[in-house]
Design goal:
This protein has about 240 residues and is an alpha/beta fold. The protein contains eight helices and twelve strands. The strands form three sheets. The chain has a five-stranded parallel sheet with strand order 3-2-1-4-5, with helices on both faces.
Length: about 240
């Protein structure tokens, strides 16, 4: 794991404190980036450490004998992970920014692929933004993306009430705080992890009200339906939200 100078705690802990024998708590895995195994062709794009889930998909598609294109982009050759295994894939395109004189042309990649292909991307923010722009014309069901960091800033306007239907509590959300923070302050235990809207742990059913969605998990149709929301980063567009808590 690379040490991030802007670490929120994870990579710093791994480098400074994690040692053999240390006991750590983990949660069951959640898959917010599922693979469509029935697609006629899949285009897998990984940037940097984003190759981790992409390579898992490539292994699965290879085992199934499915058609795919694998694209991996890194800043420098020294950053390339799993190189020997990646070389075993016939349709591999390896892009090194330092050697190519610039970043990967994702729009160019998309243009060369079949119109019915499913596209997947995981990597740094600028790559994901370019990927979403390049695939904006495609049906949402064919475009799959996974963020490691927040896509938008959390909704901190406040000034609304959150009603917890099952527990019978009504809480005021002030400016500068998220719904999750207010619930924690009130002693309400809810599942959560990243607090940035990228993991899905805090997804909560919405019974009434219009959420101000700020997460990177829900699709646009799911956000429009307003059936659930990520309370770690999303807020309210009205005066009241009723949650199934």
């Amino acid at each position: 794991m690379k040490r991030d100078p802007k670490s929120r705690g994870g990579s710093s802990f791994m480098h400074e404190q994690l040692r053999p024998g240390v006991v750590i708590q983990v949660e069951p895995p959640r898959n917010n980036f599922p693979l469509n195994e029935e697609a006629e062709h899949s285009v897998l794009v990984g940037g940097g450490i984003g190759i981790t889930p992409i390579l898992c998909m490539a292994r699965r598609l290879k085992a199934l004998g499915r058609s795919m294109t694998l694209v991996y982009s890194c800043r420098d050759r020294v950053d390339v992970a799993f190189l020997e295994e990646l070389r075993s894939y016939e349709n591999l395109h390896l892009h090194i920014d330092a050697e190519a004189g610039g970043v990967l042309d994702i729009a160019g990649v998309v243009k060369t692929q079949p119109a019915n292909a499913h596209f997947y991307c995981c990597g740094p923010g600028p790559m994901l933004a370019a990927f979403e722009a390049a695939t904006a014309h495609l049906p949402p069901a064919q475009v799959h993306v996974e963020y490691f960091t927040a896509k938008q800033e959390a909704a901190l306007d406040g000034g609304y009430t959150v009603e917890l239907k099952r527990s019978g509590k009504s809480l005021q959300v002030p400016g500068g705080k998220t719904i999750l923070q207010v619930l924690k302050d009130a002693g309400v235990e809810v599942a959560h992890s990243c607090e940035e809207g990228v993991c899905g742990a805090c997804e909560t059913r919405v019974l009434s009200g219009i959420p101000d969605h700020r997460d990177a998990i829900l699709s646009e149709p799911e956000k429009a339906a307003n059936n659930t929301m990520m309370i770690c980063c999303s807020g309210c567009k009205g005066e009241r939200l009723v949650l199934d808590l």
